[in-house]
Amino acid sequence: MSSHSRLTTADGGPEAPEPASKLWDFLRETGIVLLAFLLGILGIFDITLLGVLRANEALLAVLAPFAIYQAFRSQSIRRYRWLLILGLLYLAGQIAADLYRHNGPEDFLRGWARIGIMLMALLVSLLWFVRRSKALLAFVFGFFLVAPIRFVLAGELADEENAYKMSFGSSISLGAFLFLCIAPKALRVPAAIAPFLAGIVAILRGGRSLAGITILALATYWVGRLRLFRGRRISRSRLLATAALISGTAWGIFAGYRYAASTGVLGEKALEKYEAQSQTFEGGNVSLFLAGRLELLFSGPKILASPIIGYGSWAKDVDYVWNRAVEVGLDPEEMVGASEGGVGLIPTHSHLLGGWLEAGLPGLLFWGFALFMAMDVLIRQKFIRHPELAPIINYFFVYFLWDVFFSPFGGDRRLWSGVLIAWMASIYYKNKAERKARPSRGSHAEPPRQTLRPDRKRQSILAGHP
Prior knowledge:
Layout: H1 3-7, H2 19-41, E1 46-48, E2 52-54, H3 55-73, H4 81-101, H5 105-128, H6 133-154, H7 163-182, H8 188-204, H9 208-225, H10 236-262, H11 268-278, H12 288-292, H13 296-305, H14 318-327, H15 332-336, H16 351-359, H17 361-380, H18 390-406, H19 413-437, H20 454-462
Antiparallel strand pairs: 1-2
Helix pairs in contact: 2-3, 2-6, 3-5, 4-5, 4-17, 5-19, 6-7, 7-8, 7-9, 7-18, 8-9, 9-10, 9-18, 13-16, 16-17, 17-18, 17-19
């Protein structure tokens, strides 16, 4: 039998795939889904090597050589070349800064590994996960089980006071958005309310950031449902209306917390925390938001002093942190020893500022581009690859925006950020390609002709309708 006869039937249509081919496809897809789940759930276990690694990061290191080999042979990966180049420049900038600042191996090995893990997760996800909704969901399911399971396994060592916001809260909010994804028509109303209720519970349990992320993600989802953005171009009025809606939601969350905490509605502990943050500076003349993110007062001036070349991994400067704390009216002894990263660590508490401080300009460019992609996808609300997952995509991408601005890059964020950046990049570049292929307004170009499949074309000709 010739190769052509194996591909087509007598009437010119495609031949049904052989059972062996179907079995291979099934095993391959099942294996990828299982691999994605393992890459999430194995975060339960720790491995002591160059600091503390998770078992899923060790699995990622095993997969990396295969992914790199496939990347050199893949045509589809070329679409993401600038993203990957920025990632490699980020790593190169970190290495150069460590060498220039003469940082010790106990710091730079951990710093290089942190970026390397994120880049490996990015590449593996671009090659194997982003086109498969089942694989992405399997990873998410495994990953979000890690924190609750680690809390349970920790037993008496667990931090019960922060258990909800650090271990269970994110999974509960995810469950609410997942319910919104799969709810039938009869349950659309309770499904729409579920994320809002999850946000309220987060506030009551002390998870202010999680509450804001959850409710803001719900707002961005409904912006997409209302279809405020249509067509190729986004009008200025719609952009301003959406920005006002999202900003108003964020302000409402902040104002609601401030009122509830200051009046004792959220409990005695929340009131004590609110009063302590309100009086952080001498005289108390600082906003509640800034009192909760004091790291901005330390990282900003240091970055401006050397915006091109960073200070290297886990940048430390005891004298600077001490003097800066005195300048802004904080306890210098507490600030110098406040971080687990070491005495005198310059606080950033931000992916963006941390990357800029440590790796210099390349760190800013990488996280800045990731931030741009996330905002573009959220604004356009067109999830071409995974439209059925719109609620959880909004949740994850709003969460990512928070991390970029207000969370340190480390721990489980090393792997999670890589997967999430790959996910948003696949949507961003697919949307961009579709916009380029679409004729612009006012164009008189002839629309592309609809191409019939060979079997349908043959039938129409035989029927006398060419």
